[in-house]
Amino acid sequence: MVTRVLHYGIGLLAPFRPEFSGLSASAALFGVGALVLAAEPVAWLVRTWFDPVYGSHGLPVFLLVLLLFGWSLTSPQQIIDERQRPWALGLFMLTALVRLSGQVLAINTLGALILALDVYALGLLAGLHNRRRSLAPGWLAVVFIFALPLERVIQRSIGFVLQQFSAAGACFWLDLGFSSVECQGVRILLNGHDVLVDLPCSGARSLLLLLLLFATLAALLRPTLIRAGLGLLLTLIAAVTANVLRICLLAIGIAFPEQVGISVMAAPWHDLIGLLSLALGALPVLIWAFRTLPRQPVLDSLVHTGAHSETQRNFKLTPVKAGGFIVIAAVIVWFPAHPVDVSRPTAAPVLPVSLAGVPGQAGQLTPLESSYFTQYGGGAARSRYGDLNLLLVRTAAPLRHLHAPDECLTGLGHQVEYLGPTYTTIPTAIYRSTDPQGQLWRVAVTFYSSQGQLTTNVAEAVWLWLQDPTSTWTMIQRVTPWDIPTARIEHWDQAAALALDLPLTSDSFPPTEEPQS
């Protein structure tokens, strides 16, 4: 009955689009199974586009993919190559297996990433590479990957490596032009001014934008494997160089404000410097694309101007096989999740009974927080000491549990602004948060390991944890009203550090002003 309905529907569509005339009910059933598998990853991906927690700009990328796909699909097909159909169906079967892994391990990003293979399979089925306005289905799938919240993933995973790399490059070039340059990790001292190569300056954003440009051009130009490899290498070099240039310009502007005549950290100059660096980074990629342009369109060299068929005996898709695929898809969707990155059992954080002589008032975790820590391990505790709110989160899986305050506060309706780190008492990242009622809060965060390591950002904590997975990490978050005097804030920080047995900072590289990046 179902196959008859599908045959009838396809018959109605065939007069309007000839491409539908060869479509079978079995293929339609197979497509239903593919939609069942893709439904949850697609829903999650769409949520990331609109949820401020992810800070994703994936919707414009998805619209770009949709535009390119439609632009090619609406052009006449020059070659009808039936040999691509088994490959496409095989890819759909492969995505089913990978989605099973993503479902079991409860990794949303993995399931969404596999959507790129679906895009590739659809491109093969549509014959985008054999149309008058041809596209490379593989490179179009790569473009689709940028619709995922990749920037946050990169910042959390290899962000610290990018910080180190960018800081080293900036130090090298600044040292050639100035004598008063001192470098210590990701901190640069130029003319007595402290410049920090923090996560916003790690280069992740410029790297992703230039890689998106390269992938889009590759989808249009369909370069050979060797030329594509050269273009990719050139793009990576251009991205790193562009970010190093940006850091150097900002450092010079911060160190010599009178000579430069503008405040490089203020709008619009800060954004203009970033756009200038990005444009210079895009220039080599555009030159590569120009030199990759074919001397004559590939399809113009075909002997036959009309469409012709290249067929061979291929996999026979029957309604029984397609129906079986739908059953498999339904089983995968309903398969129970067993997250792989659950924290091993760790002792719950113990809050001080009092701080600076002020007794603590224990606070309760929200039902969502309690459920989260029950499911994924780790633990948290919060308490209030007068006008100080203290939150501790302890985990042996920082990739799952640790995050910057802007991620959770933004989800609660706050407007959060990152102000940079300070090292006066303990290494601390400072945020200014405005709640929905308009009240300003100072949010201070420090990450501390069981090995005695202190850092201000999740990227470095994750990097250090990867080198020693047996260690546990604790997030120490202090929230106070914004108008509290600086002396009182430092007093609270000292009291918290002493109560939690944190080593106080002996900063051999003291900033003369608030570090900037």
What is this structure's SSE topology?
Elements (H helix, E strand, L loop, with lengths): L1 H12 L11 H26 L7 H16 L5 E3 L2 H22 L2 H6 L1 H12 L10 H9 L4 H28 L3 E4 L2 E4 L2 E4 L7 H18 L3 H31 L1 H4 L8 H24 L15 E3 L8 H15 L20 E2 L2 E2 L1 E3 L3 H10 L2 E7 L2 E8 L2 H4 L3 H7 L3 E8 L5 E7 L5 E10 L4 E2 L2 H10 L5 E9 L4 H14 L18
Parallel strand pairs: 1-5
Antiparallel strand pairs: 2-3, 3-4, 6-7, 8-9, 9-10, 10-15, 11-12, 12-13, 13-14, 13-15
Helix pairs in contact: 1-2, 2-13, 3-7, 4-6, 4-13, 6-7, 7-9, 8-10, 8-17, 9-10, 9-12, 10-12
Count every helix, treating DSSP H or I runs of 4 or more residues as helices.
Answer: 18
Proportion of residues in β-strands = 5-15%
Q: Give me the count of strands.
A: 15
Spatial shape: globular
The percent range for helix content is 40-55%
Low-confidence stretches: 1-23, 295-315, 508-516
